[in-house]
Every structure is written in structure tokens, then in C-alpha cells.
Amino acid sequence: METPTVIQGRLLTSEDLDLVLALRKKFPAWSQYQLSRDLAKRWNWRNSKGQLKDIACRSLLRKLEVKGLIDLPAPRCISPNRYRHQPVTPVAHDTTPIIGPLSSLLPLQWFDTTSEPNRGLFSWFLASQHYLGFRQSVGENMAYLAADRHGRPLACLLFGSAAWSCAARDLHVGWSARQRRERLHLLTNNHRFLILPWVLIPQLASHLLGKVTQRLSRDWQAKYGHPILLVETFVDNSRFQGICYRAANWLRLGETTGRTRNDRWNRAVAPVKDVYAYALHRQALEKLRDPS
Known about the structure:
The chain is of the alpha+beta class. It contains 9 helices and 11 strands. It folds into 2 domains: 5-77, no CATH class; 94-289, 3-Layer(aba) Sandwich (Aminopeptidase). 33% of the residues lie in helices and 19% in strands. Helix 2 (32-43) crosses helix 3 (54-66).
């Protein structure tokens, strides 16, 4: 293995790989769960709340296996990640057109998506109405179901892991590879933004972006024990012009290269997208480079 190298956001050395191989030899009957838990403890790999990052550790081990560097025991149960691709259950909902000025909807409400029926409704809206569909999120994420003052659903917004590498964003932040590795968790990506198709309200999209960015870092702090300093999103410019992001004062930083994290041959395998970012703190860029 070329060392040191970054896998799953962690700098992995030859000594780390030797430890994995030694544990596999010493405890051949261990499951992937037992191995990842033990390694996470040995590495003290924890999130901001002190919880072991054993799921991330399991993902790292599986990537090492794909590279042919280790041999893992067969999984003993169905991975929770497999449920990401299962069909979403349809949920009945009202599709009566919502038309009028933005002021007629205010103040907005934000429904809790961690419990039913809002969770099911959020999932079904994205699965049935968003062109990218819906998958269960893995890792830190925040989901919002916005409604008007009468409780009528208007939009879905989903935030999750930021891209590991994005040239336009990384140039904008001005951080080193080490700084990015250590502080990427202080970024999030707006993976999904859906205004329901029967909601026809001028300026609603930019208003929602403004409202959600006012609360996003605070909500993240309460849920995961750390703030968010910068939000990014990628807009498919063959479909959209990013007007609502620009209207909400997001900055267009450039374009993606068209590569995905699984591209091993430097070939463009995904649509080129515009990169937008929004700082949630006045000194966001300075803090990402030097948090002290």
C-alpha cells in the first residue's frame, strides 16, 4: 500500500495496516462488527460527541479489502446500508395547488422528520418527485420538511456529508490536504432541495434557503455536538440555472470535473455541475484553515 494514504477521511499508515492484519490473524473468528469496534477504540476514532466511529471504520476495512490489502470475514447480518436502496412506501397526500404571494404562507413551519408520519412523507416526496430520487442517509445528516402556516407541506431539504474533494471549493477555502481531512466535518452538502410541484409561490425557494441556513449550524450542534461553518451544493447545469441559490446569496465557485469518488481512471463519469457555497459564519474560511 502506498502510505500514508487517506481512506474514509482518515490518514492510514503502514503501521495501521499492520495492526489490522495482526488483529485478523490473532482473532480470526471476529466478525466485521467486532473488528471495526476494536479498531475504532484503539485508534480513538470518535465523533464530536465522543461516540465511536465504528461504521466509518467498517467502511474503511471494506475499502481495504476491495484494494486486496486485507481479507475480511463474511458479513453475519444484512448491512443497514442495503436498506438505502429499498423502495419507499407511498404515502397519501394532498396535491391541491398552493398559489399566491409568499406572505400568505408565513410564518413557515418545520416538521420533525425523525418520526412518523413526517419521515415517511419526506421520503416519499423525494422518491416520487425529485429527479435523483431518495436513499436513506448514512453518516451525519439533517432533513427538513417545510410547511406553511396552515401545515401544508411545501418543500424538502436534505443535508449530508460534504464532498471529500472538490477543486473549486477547496481553492475557495484555501486549505491544505491535512486541514481538509481534519475539518471536512464542519461542512455539509445540500444533497436534495425539492419544492413540491403543486406549490407555485414566487421567491419561495430562496426564502427557504435563507431560513434553513439560519438554523442549520445550531441544529447540527444540537444533534452531533459540532457546528457547520460552510454549506455546499452541486447544481446540474444541464437542468437548472441555480437562480434560487444566487438569490439567497450563495456564491458560485466554479464547476465539478465530472468525476465521482469511485472514478479510478480520471474519466468524466458524471454530469458536470456548478459548485455553490454559503458561509454560515463570518470567519468560516479562516476557521476552516485555522480553527484556533
